[in-house]
């Protein structure tokens, strides 16, 4: 029997299934990364490739959230989502490249804009 999301009729099963599936899909790669990272030099070509792919994936997720949001975020106008991202990035650069500064600035702009526009 292959366990599926609905194969066991117990209230705890969906949570266990999600935890197992999440581990297999995500954490196994983290473990492999830790195992193999000790053998890699930081200036190696493969490390540069992995870093570029990871950066591209994060940028893609951010772009999707801004340009094609789902749920409640879709109610915010595009200019507000883009503006909050731009101001967050500017704050990050002006704040000595501190991620927390950029995230907080973007969030503050978005929340205030949401409150003023969407209400």
From TrEMBL:
<dbReference type="Pfam" id="PF05437">
    <property type="entry name" value="AzlD"/>
</dbReference>
<keyword id="KW-0812">Transmembrane</keyword>
<keyword id="KW-0472">Membrane</keyword>
<dbReference type="InterPro" id="IPR008407">
    <property type="entry name" value="Brnchd-chn_aa_trnsp_AzlD"/>
</dbReference>
<protein>
    <submittedName>
        <fullName>AzlD domain-containing protein</fullName>
    </submittedName>
</protein>
<feature type="transmembrane region" description="Helical">
    <location>
        <begin position="74"/>
        <end position="92"/>
    </location>
</feature>
<keyword id="KW-1133">Transmembrane helix</keyword>
<feature type="transmembrane region" description="Helical">
    <location>
        <begin position="12"/>
        <end position="36"/>
    </location>
</feature>
<feature type="transmembrane region" description="Helical">
    <location>
        <begin position="99"/>
        <end position="117"/>
    </location>
</feature>
<feature type="transmembrane region" description="Helical">
    <location>
        <begin position="48"/>
        <end position="68"/>
    </location>
</feature>
């Amino acid at each position: 029997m292959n366990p599926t999301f609905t194969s066991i009729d117990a209230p705890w099963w969906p949570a266990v299934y999600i935890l197992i599936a999440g581990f297999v899909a995500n954490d196994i790669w983290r473990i492999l990364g830790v195992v193999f990272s000790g053998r890699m030099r930081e200036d190696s070509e493969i490390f540069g490739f992995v870093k570029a792919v990871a950066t591209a994936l994060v940028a893609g997720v951010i772009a999707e959230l801004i340009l094609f949001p789902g749920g409640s975020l879709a109610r915010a106008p595009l200019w507000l989502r883009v503006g909050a991202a731009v101001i967050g990035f500017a704050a990050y650069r002006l704040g000595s490249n501190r991620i927390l500064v950029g995230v907080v600035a973007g969030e503050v702009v978005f929340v205030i804009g949401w409150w003023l526009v969407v209400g």
